Amino acid sequence: MKFVFLVLFGLYFQSFYSQNDTLNLILENPIYGNRYDSGDIGVGFAIQSKDKRFLTDYYNFNIINLKGIDSLGNVAYYSLKDIRKEISIDSINYISISDLTKDKKFWQVHNELSLKKKIFLIEKRKGKFNSSTGKYEITYYMLPMIYEGTRKNVVPTDLSN
User: Fold this and answer.
1) Residue 123 buriedness (CB in 10 A; 0-12 / 13-18 / 19+)
2) Which of 143, 155, 150, 62 is nearest to 100 (CA)?
3) What is the pTM assigned to this prediction?
4) Whole-angstrom Cα distance, residue 29 to residue 27?
5) Considering the chain, what is the average pLDDT of its residues?
6) pLDDT exceeds cutoff 90 at 37
7) If pLDDT is split at 50, 70 and 90, which confidence band does 38 have?
8) 79-111: string of b/e by CB count within 10 Å (b at 16+)?
9) Cβ proximity of 42 and 151 under 8 Å
10) Are 77 and 68 in contact, with CB atoms under 8 Å apart?
């Protein structure tokens, strides 16, 4: 009985301390892509690889947009517009890609992202141009996402135009 209690106690603290809580990762002009033939939405970022055999290290995420099953029995997904939540950037702690990857090898970044319980994309979007200030209005949105892993030599390309 004592052994079972110690094992359960150890598992509880391992799960409590093995993962960090939340990461809010800010990306400017993220490139979204639909996955395969589903409604899954992918996003990620590439950095120059420190390994001379590769050009880039690409960190891949899936936007959490599963809605459920519709009346016809098909899998339904939310659009980006539906799941974007406008936020005030002053009210949250966030980190940029350069801060996340600074002085780290790709596997260290991979491990850090893998240990996060919750990851949110903080999307920085240009709005209307304000002619009186000469600047664009900036809006920030938050989207939930899941880290899916790292790939080598992936170059994200926006083919929407």
Assistant:
1) buried
2) 150
3) 0.77
4) 6
5) 84
6) no
7) confident
8) eeeebbeebeeeeeeeeebeebbeeeebeebbe
9) no
10) no
